[in-house]
């Protein structure tokens, strides 16, 4: 099974393969119009794009959370380690090693930080000692959570709740984390801190990340590879370094270009954008 999932040219194992998926909400709203992407084992892959581009929908299609929103993958396939998962129940997807951290943190507000973290271990069957060890590991990554362990999550800051959401995902001992908009609503310094921890978890624990981000700048500094979504389609992909240096990415997503800062009101920019998206 693992051999089948290996890419031939680089010999890096592809864990997750999204192949030309179409997603429709409420049987009529076509949101993803043929999205394909590969997530290699041990990498940080970024899914970039503006509001409503389809990033969250892509992550939910992978984790099996679309059904609760009356969404459906109507075409294409999603494979994890070569096995189709697009019709898999979300809890089973977690058991396979894929866990999603939802946009907006979604901590259980009335539970303490520690209780929240422990909910992440609910699919585990390896006993209390392993869970306790991982709780300590999470506290080592996020010392702030150790300090706040007895606080009700609802009374902690946005940054602490984001740490809690990532920590809770780690408690399931995932192979892959789908991280939705970790920067949302956080101060720049905290965003940097969260991304540094993501990088450390990736390097030390070998956890693979697929992260959806509007903050192209920070995402492309930490990711290895990026996909840019526009209106439900991938319009560009490449190694993060190449995307960072790409003129169109600089112009439309990083807000800089060789000719100075661009505005969408600029006619030349608009024409270029149309050409790019056509
Ligand atoms: N449950 C739903 N029912 C109907 N339409 C939806 C639903 N969820 C999302 N959409 C629509 O699908 C499109 C893509 O939304 P999605 O949340 O995937 O984008 P996104 O790239 O994650 O954007 P953002 O960064 O703003 O969260 C949007 O036009 C949105 O209105």
From TrEMBL:
This is ABC transporter ATP-binding protein. The lineage of its organism: Bacteria, Pseudomonadati, Pseudomonadota, Alphaproteobacteria, Rhodobacterales. Keywords: Amino-acid transport, ATP-binding, Nucleotide-binding, Transport. The keyword Nucleotide-binding applies. GO terms for biological process: L-amino acid transport. It comes from Sulfitobacter sabulilitoris. The keyword Nucleotide-binding applies. GO terms for molecular function: ATP binding; ATP hydrolysis activity; branched-chain amino acid transmembrane transporter activity. SUPFAM superfamilies: P-loop containing nucleoside triphosphate hydrolases. InterPro entries: AAA+_ATPase, ABC_transporter-like_ATP-bd, BCAA_Transport_ATP-bd_LivF, P-loop_NTPase.
